[in-house]
């Protein structure tokens, strides 16, 4: 079993997972974008290519807080 993470220019990321130990053989390729997703399934007898009107939008939020230094007396 292996997972391969690939990072390309322009923010393109790919993940490849393979397992010869899995009892279920899956031969599926998924491409996801901001508007649609394409799924190619080699095992499917009909409709090998499916297009889904679903996408991903990443929203990054940053939360900041003040840092406080408090002196704690050591126990004697």
Percentage of residues in DSSP E strands? 25-35%
Main beta sheet strand tally, sense and closure = 3 strands, antiparallel
User: How far apart are the first and last residues' alpha carbons, in Å?
Assistant: 55 Å
Domain module tally: 1
Q: What class, by secondary structure content?
A: mainly beta
User: What is the element string, with H for helices and E for strands?
Assistant: EEEEE
Mean pLDDT: 81
Portion of residues in helices?
A: under 10%
Which stretches are low in confidence, meaning pLDDT under 50 for 5 or more residues running?
A: none
Please state how the strands of the largest beta sheet are arranged side by side: 3-4-5
Number of DSSP helical runs: 0
The gyration radius over C-alpha positions equals 23 Å
Counting DSSP E segments of at least 2 residues, the number of strands comes to 5
- The outline comes out as elongated
Write the layout of secondary structure elements.
Layout: E1 2-7, E2 13-18, E3 28-32, E4 37-41, E5 49-52
Précis, in short:
This protein is 0% helix and 34% strand. It is mainly beta and 76 residues long. It has one domain (1-76).
List keywords for this structure.
0% helix; 76 residues; mainly beta; three-stranded antiparallel beta sheet
Structure characterization notes:
This protein has 76 residues and is mainly beta. It has one domain (1-76). The protein has strands spanning 2-7, 13-18, 28-32, 37-41, 49-52. It has a 3-stranded antiparallel β-sheet, with no helix packed on it. A two-stranded antiparallel ribbon has the order 1-2. The N and C termini lie far apart (55 Å). The model has no long low-confidence stretch (mean pLDDT 81).
């Amino acid at each position: 079993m292996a997972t391969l993470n690939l990072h390309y220019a322009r923010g393109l990321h790919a993940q490849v997972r393979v397992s010869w130990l899995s009892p279920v053989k899956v031969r599926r390729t998924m491409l996801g974008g901001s508007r649609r997703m394409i799924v190619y399934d080699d095992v499917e007898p009909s409709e090998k290519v499916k297009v889904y009107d679903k996408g991903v939008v990443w929203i990054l939020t940053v939360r900041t807080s003040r840092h406080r230094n408090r002196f704690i007396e050591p126990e004697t």
